[in-house]
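Work Package 3 committed the consortium to producing structural models of liganded targets before the mid-term review. Because experimental data for this complex are still outstanding, the team generated a predictive model from sequence and the ligand definition alone, so that downstream docking and mutagenesis planning could proceed in parallel. The input record is reproduced below exactly as it was submitted to the modelling pipeline, together with the SMILES string for zinc ion.
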Amino acid sequence: MEQPTSTPDISDIWYQGITQDELFEHLPEETEYNYFQNEQLFIEFKIFKLIQKHLRGEQNTRIMNNYQSKDREQKCDLFMREYDDILSGKSLGVPENKYWPYFILRSLLVEIQQLVCTLSKVCTNETCPIMKAAAQWTFLCASHTKPQQCCAIDYMTHTLDTSITIFNTRVFNPAEANPNKAQQHAAQVARRIYRVFGHVYFNHEQQFKAFENATLLHRRFEAFVKKHNYMEASNLLKAMIGPNEPNYL
Ligand SMILES: [Zn+2]
Ligand SMILES: [Zn+2]
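The resulting structure, written out as tokens with the ligand in place, is given here.
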């Protein structure tokens, strides 16, 4: 299918009843930033195509049980190498933009929301009444005037909502006098939201594995926080798990 030459009004496309995935599916992989004129959408498009190219079909149970395969490792390496280009915005034809890392982080939040959605049946007030990673790490929910104990699913939902609000009101605030502040807010968001991975890994491993297998979301998030020094290596899952880490991490 030919790439459209002029920029369409994307909101028009929504009104015509086409979903974002359908639009992405229809566009060729080489579609450039100029077509979207929107960083968020462009990043989501690049990730969509990357997943399609390297990981499609990985949800398949047979492959899921075959984590050790060389083929899988090669695919993941290739995927991560290409993801590096997205992280830096390099070679993507995106105009110089100091907000680029924040757009990346915000698009990761959207995907974490999707991960949390996969837990609807397994993570409830009854199964997970407190937010914890492994048993020794429990967290109070900071999305309230006074931090309080929310059950895990509420904690994750509240933290995602608060994080998105922080992005809209503080990180992306052009009036912010101190650019370091935006970075601090982004780092804080990254640290808090990372606890979702901790909870899902230690308490809903099957869901974690399936999602990771299909998207490499955790691996991408780690690459992102390492690149920007948003988190200490000792707070990442690999360090928490120790030498017995499974090879899909
Ligand atoms: Zn849970
Ligand atoms: Zn809460």
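Reviewers should note the following from the model. DSSP finds twelve helices and two strands in the chain. These observations will guide the Year 2 experiments.
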